[in-house]
Inverse folding.
């Protein structure tokens, strides 16, 4: 089914939204100008494709303090999550100089209970990590991610899933795929995923994201998204709050969407939802070969 819509709700980045209208069948949604919002395909990925290394599942549970808007507006409770065992723990949001503040931003410096000020701003703690390549940032060169290097022998076990998703993407949206392929072909082979148009996979585990837009993704291409079910849970649907629609992506399903349109997750009960986001970094083709 194909639908045409337009944003009908004002949203705020960094805010959590619950969306009641949930799609659970094949649907492709376009804006009025013909640009894609998302394409949802049910039961198109065999269960065997999810039989990758358990170490990759474990990596999805790594704590991250740099997910920015996706982690919501920063709070002391969000900063302390998972750090209850620390002897020195966050007690107060502050500026880099130590001035107390009530932050409405996605990250903040903070004071420890011993009076020290954090050396860098952090966002709320969530379970998230990344596999594959990253392009150059102000603080790091082009590289394989830290977690990829830690499980380098297990990393190829997810390649068959990447290749299968790549084929589905190419068949549905050949023009978007071709544009992304150009960036991929010009990128160093060491930092891209073979037999695909992807360089990077973001892994999230039981992570309810706040409203955000993905930064650094290839602007000419699209993002692919699926879920591995590692437990029993309800909710967690991926939502597009401007359109007041959500999509119930389960294991075996594929969502292809525009990552620059604001999206988030509904609240979730239970645990074991491992989501995987496949994309290529915008500047990956500017990286030098190694």
């Amino acid at each position: 089914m194909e639908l045409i819509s337009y944003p009908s709700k004002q949203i705020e980045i960094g805010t959590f939204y619950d969306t009641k209208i949930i799609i659970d069948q094949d649907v492709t949604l376009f804006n009025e100008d013909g640009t894609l919002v998302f394409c949802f395909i049910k039961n198109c990925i065999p269960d065997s494709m999810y039989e990758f290394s358990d170490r990759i599942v474990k990596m999805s549970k790594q704590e991250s303090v740099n997910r920015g808007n996706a982690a919501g507006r920063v709070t002391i409770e969000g900063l302390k999550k998972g750090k209850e065992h620390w002897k020195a723990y966050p007690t107060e949001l502050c500026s880099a100089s130590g001035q107390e503040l009530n932050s409405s931003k996605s990250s903040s410096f903070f004071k420890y209970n011993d009076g020290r000020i954090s050396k860098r701003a952090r966002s709320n703690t969530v379970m998230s990590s990344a596999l594959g390549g990253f392009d150059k940032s102000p603080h790091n060169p082009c590289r394989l991610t830290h977690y990829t290097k830690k499980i380098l022998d297990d990393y190829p076990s997810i390649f068959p899933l990447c290749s299968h998703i790549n084929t589905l993407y190419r068949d549905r949206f050949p023009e978007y795929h071709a544009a992304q392929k150009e960036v991929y072909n010009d990128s160093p082979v060491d930092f891209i995923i073979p037999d695909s148009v992807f360089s990077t996979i973001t892994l999230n585990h039981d992570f309810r994201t706040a409203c955000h837009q993905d930064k650094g993704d290839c602007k000419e291409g699209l993002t692919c998204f699926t879920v591995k079910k590692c437990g029993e849970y309800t909710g967690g649907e991926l939502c597009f709050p401007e359109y007041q629609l959500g999509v119930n992506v389960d294991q075996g399903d594929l969502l292809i969407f525009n990552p620059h349109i604001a999206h988030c997750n509904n609240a979730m009960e239970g645990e074991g939802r491992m989501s995987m986001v496949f994309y290529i970094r915008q500047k990956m083709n500017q990286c030098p070969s190694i």
